[in-house]
Structure formats: structure tokens, C-alpha cells
Amino acid sequence: MSHLETDLIHQGRAFNDSKAVVTPIYQTSTYYADEDLQQYIVAATETKHPTFYHRHGNPTNSQAAAILASLEKTEDALLLATGMAAISTAILAVVKQGDHVVTQNSLYSGAMLFFKEFLSDYGVTVTHVDQTDNAAFEHAIQQNTKLIYVETPSNPNLDVTDLEYIGQLGKKHGITTMVDNTFASPINQTPSDYGIDIIVHSATKYLGGHSDLTAGAICGSKEFIHKAWRRSLVLGASLSPFDSWLLLRGMKTLSMRVKQINSNALALAKWFEKHPAIKHVAYIGLRSHPQYELVAEQMRGGTGMLCIEILGDDDQAYQHAQQVLNKLQIFANAASLGGVESLVVHPASMWGSHHDKSQKKTSGITPGMLRISVGIEHIDDLIGDFEGALEGIG
Ligand SMILES: *Cc1c(COP(=O)(O)O)cnc(C)c1O
């Protein structure tokens, strides 16, 4: 077994049958059936066969999937067109009408929508619990619970779920466990080390890393990936060969990028802690984070995600947050995260349509909160940008 940094570049070479050092983009929907009939039947039915028809598989996708499986230490992986495609396809490969799911109060907004609106329409019930309270997960388990779905650290308020506890809870009750590992990335966290069954990703974020593609990944056992693949054949959210190629290119530098991002984010978080205009900094790499011990146990780095709370009571804090957004020069106000460039969003205004007031409260979104995705720029420039934008507040 080679190391992760090496796997990122070389894993899955078997799917490149050309002499090109860089995997070609197999920009084709279909493949010649010039082998004997028996082999063609195999191609038509085998899980993720790379050379039958695009919805079934593609050599570029197979190579990227091989890397994902090795990063997450799972038997296999399936790549799809977006993170939400991966999440919805994976969940629909676990639950059916009459089943129950236990999940968290704080989740990525798309996953929240899927649990609240989609699953309930199809007869699957869901209980949301406080992810920082281990016992709450066990209390919520019912006879028909088929899935425990967690996200850690969570989007946007960076609460952490105890992966070892969840992995054991699933095993104890015979319930499938699934983790959205997008924020951590495989560089900072390996859920399968704790017995988690299925790992999902928005590869749009750190894995791709350049804000130039959307993709999603499901990592799990061969048996589960086969099930998820069967679902994906009818749901149809295949990853395009070009986006898959961009993902392969992006992943080569994943380790370097994430390490630089971890270091920048920690330095920025420490600087925020001392700034008078900042009421609160939520960064899992800070000793002040209430779950710092758990983070130190289950993670290798703090990620590039942090949230700050600007000074002021509700309305004033809202205005201050907007003002800071407008003044920032390097941090761009844009959705998404995990790219080489630093981004910032104001969740209270961005997620107005997905969350009502009480949902915002339970998911921890406050008027003066800014969510920051730190990139790989020079740390002095990043600090300087906020220094200018915060001037006159506090
Ligand atoms: C962005 C994101 C998703 C959804 O991914 P898409 O690629 O946008 O579909 C899911 N989970 C988390 C934690 C995310 O940040």
C-alpha cells in the first residue's frame, strides 16, 4: 500500500489503457461491441462497466472512483454529477417506504430539504437530533430505523459528530451509517476508521478544489456500491467525462491544498479571536471550540471552514455583516467552498428561502454570522483584507 499523496496521483492507472501519462477524456456516450457476444453481455450487466454506455460507467470516471475508494479506505466508490446526486442516490439505496432515518439538526441545506420535503412525500420518516449529544441519536432510534445520517463538521455552524460513537451505535443496532465528509475531506478525516459504512462527498468542494466542476461521490462496500449504482442507472445523474477529468486533475494536489488551507484557516481564526469587532469565532481547530478534544481525536486538521459572528445586536449585526461583505477585496462573496480562492457568505441572507426562522435558530444561523471558506492565498493578504473590512466596527 502506498501513501495517500501517491495514491492521489497514481491510483486507478489500470483504467488508463492508453500510453498517455494523463488519462484521456473518454468523451463518448457509447462503446463498440466488437468483442464476442458473451463479453458484451458481461459489459451490459457488470457494475460500473467502463466501456458499455455512459450511464453505466466510463474509464475516466472509473479512475477517479478508484482514487476516492482508496482515500476513504472503502472497497469501492461511485461518482455522480453533484454532491446532492450522491447523497440522494445513496440514501435511496438504503431506505424505502415505511422506514425511519435519524439525522442531525444542522445539515447542508440541500440535504435538509431532501429529508424534510422529499423523503416525507415518499413515506420515510425522519428524526433530527442535536449532533453534539451522543445519547440523542440512540434515543431517536425506532424499530424501523434503517439509517443514521450525519455530517461532520456540519455546514454551516461547524458542529462535530462523534464518529466512533455513531459507528458503534450503527453496529449495535444493525443500522446503516452514512457520513457527509465534504467539509473535512479525506485529508482531515477518515470515517471508515470508525466503522462508518458509507461516506458521501460533494466533490465540487475540496476534492475538485478549483471551483470549476460539480461532482459527487459515494464510497462504501462493493455490495453497497452495486446497489447505489443500480439506483443511479434509473435516477440518471451520471458524471460527465470532462468533469471527471477535471476532478482527477484537481485531486492530484488535494493533500497540498488542504494542508495549506488548514494552516491559513487556523492563523486567520486566531487573528479573529483577538479582534474587537468579532463577537465569536467558530473554528474546530481552536482550543476555544467546545468540541476541540473530539476534533483532536478524530481529525488530522481543522479544514478551511470557519464562522465569525460580527458585533452588534440582531439588526445591527446583520448590517455590519453586509457591510463587511461589501468591503472585502480578496474574499469573494460567492456560494460554495473548498476551492483555492477564499470565499465568504452571509448565511442569514443566503438561506432565507430554505430555512424559516425557527429552522435558522436550530441550525445555528444568526444575523451577524459570516461563513468563510479559506483558500491558499498568502495569509498576510487574507488577514489584511479582513483588517480593512472590519475597520470602524467594535
Ligand atoms: C455543497 C455541499 C453538498 C452538495 O453538493 P453539490 O455538489 O452542490 O450538489 C453536500 N454537502 C455539503 C456538506 C456541501 O457543502
From TrEMBL:
GO MF annotations, alphabetized:
transaminase activity
What's the protein called, per UniProt? Aminotransferase class I/II-fold pyridoxal phosphate-dependent enzyme
Q: Which UniProt keywords apply?
A: Aminotransferase, Pyridoxal phosphate, Transferase
Q: Which Pfam families does this chain map to?
A: Cys_Met_Meta_PP
Needed cofactors: pyridoxal 5'-phosphate
PROSITE patterns cross-referenced by the UniProt entry: CYS_MET_METAB_PP, PUA
InterPro entries linked to this entry: Cys/Met-Metab_PyrdxlP-dep_enz, Cys_met_metab_PP, PyrdxlP-dep_Trfase, PyrdxlP-dep_Trfase_major, PyrdxlP-dep_Trfase_small
Q: List the source organism.
A: Sphingobacterium hotanense
Transferase found in the keyword field? yes
User: SUPFAM superfamilies per the record?
Assistant: PLP-dependent transferases
